[in-house]
Amino acid sequence: MNWIETIQAWRQLPAADKLRRRWQAIPQDVAQSMAFEQEPVELHRLQEILDQIAPPVSSKPLAASLPIPN
Questions:
Q1: Phi and psi at residue 25, in whole multiples of 5°?
Q2: Dist CA 26 CA 21 (whole Å)
Q3: Is 28 in contact with 42 (CB distance < 8 Å)?
């Protein structure tokens, strides 16, 4: 699969699947960022922290979901 096919496949995913995948990627993203800053952190510890936080219901901020006032 090339990058164009990967992007097309991502765009075809339902919003809930995209949100779930982004949420699940957080510990790995943070671990990589911390390692880059030479402050390594254990991936399982980040996963434990994330498990204590309720995932967002929507990827849109509340203001983006509200209708535009007249």
A1: -85, -10
A2: 9
A3: no
Stretch (H or E) spanning 34: helix 15-36
Half-sphere exposure in the Cβ direction for 33 (13 Å, CA): 7
Q: Which two tokens stand for residue 28?
A: 């790995």
Say yes or no to pLDDT of 63 above 80: no
First to last CA, the chain: 46
- Report yes or no on whether pTM surpasses 0.70: no
Confidence of residue 55 (pLDDT cuts 50, 70, 90): confident
Q: Give tens-digit pLDDT for 20-42.
A: 999 999 999 999 999 999 998 99
* Angle made by CA atoms 17, 55, 9, in degrees to the nearest 5: 15
Given a contact cutoff of 8 angstroms between Cβ atoms, the answer to whether 30 and 46 are in contact is yes
